[in-house]
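SUBJECT: A protein chain and its fold
Encoding: whole-number codes for local backbone shapes
RECORD BEGINS BELOW THIS LINE
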Amino acid sequence: MSNLFILTGSLNSGKTSYVQSLFQNLKTHKPHIRISGFTQKGVLDPQEEMKIGYDLVLLPNFQKQYKLARLRTNEPQQVLSKEKRLVRNPRHRFNFDDANLKMVKDYMLQRIGKTDLWVFDELGKLEILKDGHYEAVHQILEQEKKTNSNCSFLFASREEFIEKILCTLPFPNNFQKLQFPCLGSDYVKFQKSLFSNL
């Protein structure tokens, strides 16, 4: 039976850093585990010290990054209420590299049936709108389900998107969730539970 593990928290709460830490610990303690998926790393403007976009990092190779999105430079930055931010399509704010999105999708689809742990960091508004990584993740979930795979899934997302993501994508019903920030003992407990299911 497949298992689902969810990391959730606000922007810059440490979800991606924790995924990287989990990956390194898996390589050390369970090197036979086959990991596939991606993380999304924030890109900072060194002069303005502000986030200007995101890069994709394919797993299991953390060394190579691919451009995912950059802020639209011709659009004035607005201070929006939380309600408006939740419904705003990210494509209105960012230019996305659709060629790299397709490359990541093609890579991941080739890994179906060859993966013990799928990592999707992070899922959000685009996937709820059936855009971004939606098609690739949906196909992976459906194909792994058809073959009765025992692989596990780990995804990260902001708390306000979790319920809609679980309604939009056919993830397993049984899941464990870690809310960021949290106590060190919670990190350890979550990791032990994840490792015991691999």
Notes: Residues 15-29 form the longest helix (15 residues). The chain has one domain: 4-196.
